[in-house]
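**Reference record**
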Amino acid sequence: MMKNNYMRTIHFLCEDKKVTHPIVQKIEQALEINIPYIEPQDLMLALQTSKHRILMIDHHDYSRLNNQIRDLPLANKTFENIVINVQCRLTTDEILNFGHLKGLFYENDSVEVISKGCSEIINGQNWLPRKVAAQLLFHYRNMVETQSAPVTVDLTTREIHILRSLMTGASNSQIAEDQFISEFTVKSHLYQIFKKLCVKNRVQAAAWARQHLLS
């Protein structure tokens, strides 16, 4: 495989790095590269030690992986993400959960197609189905058109904390536990946040937070 200055490394996010994944193994053979396996508990450390790391995730395992560690940082801009084995068309919100999505492959895609896409992604390109690209384009166009909230918004300290939790993908129950409040109170705060930011849902609120709140 030809390499250039945009070369990235793929790491396969899995529950047990001792278990070989057949598709990953075939991609390694096709591209003549090594794809290291990484477990969720190692991902937080990787945030501090590595840049330009591409995470490959089997969509069949995503829910279990996400439940193993709170605030799994898939949406962190440090990571570019590839999702394989997607069974059906995803909603826009589901796609946005993967943050910096570089590639998406369905379970009926051949190893040749996946390998070709991964090769392009490693070299700095995107490989997204047209429908997925259209969904994202529509979403971000809509955000530009509807985002009327100013950079400075009268948010309370509690609301800012909740916005930061939304950025990590935390659920209402997780936010309630972290903030020592009830889920009903969380919902009330979210209602006020959406109203202040002129957004319709938590995905749009999280996008606003990523753009306007300092880390």
